[in-house]
């Protein structure tokens, strides 16, 4: 199994989906560290309960020194033996230092069908734009925010009486299915499967 670190900032529901997937002996990753910039992240508690190594490196004491914070993150990832990193609701922008150090080995999940709606408040913006199809994307992390090569996407319909909360819940359900599948495909370098469910477009 490939040692994979997860980086979170909050709830950690995607991290939970990855932890559950990795509990399967047939899954190609083992979670070697759950790392957060937020010591209060509920996802850290989930990881501890699952018996996984966790670490919080609070960004606040570093002030404006993003480089020093990222060096500490990088040291922790390296120390844990991570060969790949999954950002799972990690809500701080990364500088080129960390994205370059992990180029081709760092994945992110984003709650929209990229390249539509990079950034924040994706569900509100999808509703405002009137799109009929929305979803989530797993992609490789590059310097540009939410811009790297797409590894997989899952689509959901936007319904007539949707609110941002309803739409967000519908997308989140797909995120939890997509991320483990995309990570598995990434680690095993499997080509796209023709038998993939129609709502789950893992490329
Ligand atoms: C998820 O919806 C994830 O796609 C999104 O934050 C949420 C985290 O939830 N990520 C981003 O917006 C990244 N810019 P979680 O902590 O329960 O996984």
UniProtKB/TrEMBL annotation:
Superkingdom, taxonomy of origin: Bacteria
Pfam family name, one: Formyl_trans_N
UniProt keyword DNA damage, yes or no: no
Record InterPro entries: Formyl_transf_N (IPR002376), Formyl_transf_N_sf (IPR036477), GART (IPR004607), GART_AS (IPR001555)
Biological processes per GO annotation: 'de novo' IMP biosynthetic process
Reactions performed catalytically: N(1)-(5-phospho-beta-D-ribosyl)glycinamide + (6R)-10-formyltetrahydrofolate = N(2)-formyl-N(1)-(5-phospho-beta-D-ribosyl)glycinamide + (6S)-5,6,7,8-tetrahydrofolate + H(+)
Residues involved in (6R)-10-formyltetrahydrofolate binding: 66, 91-94, 108
The protein's name in its UniProt record: Phosphoribosylglycinamide formyltransferase
Organism: Acetobacter vaccinii
Taxonomy of the source species: Bacteria, Pseudomonadati, Pseudomonadota, Alphaproteobacteria, Acetobacterales
Gene this protein is translated from: purN
